[in-house]
Amino acid sequence: MASGGCEVHRFDPSIPSAYIHEAERFRHHRLSVDWRDPKPAIAPHRLHSNTKKLKTILNEFGHWKIDVLKADMESAEWKILENIILEGIVEQIGQLVLEIHLHWPGFEVSGNDSSVVRYWYSLFKELEYKNFRLFHTYKDISKPQMFLKKEIFNASSCYILSWVNTRWT
What we know:
The protein is α/β, with parallel strands linked by helices. It has three helices and eleven strands. The strands form four sheets. A four-stranded mixed sheet has the order 6-7-11-8, covered by helices on one side. The relative contact order is 0.13.
């Protein structure tokens, strides 16, 4: 995408440097997207990683839209998706590609199986309400066949879902 003229930012808390400028339009940041901003008293103890809400990152970079957001958030996707919907950031995204994990409810998501599924479903319905349409799905068959800690034949604990904002300009 960078070679095609797009500005690309990659957020990965495991990179050795806080910032790497790989090419003219390709930048790596030792940062991860979270559903909450860190508390100042806790942040100094996390020297090798930094987490921020997507809204905070956009404000700091001076960006007001994201053409494509591709994210693997390692089971934090549900709370992060909820946050970007609640803060109105989702309307600023043209295409959303999420890797979702179904083997357990996810960070800070609790309740019985049916309430967890209702919560997940409500986030997908909210995307639909915000004019996002699912256009591609991919089932990662290399992952365990688990759904909420139960083995399910011909399922996967990991899917990649791609949506497009039909009101994107």
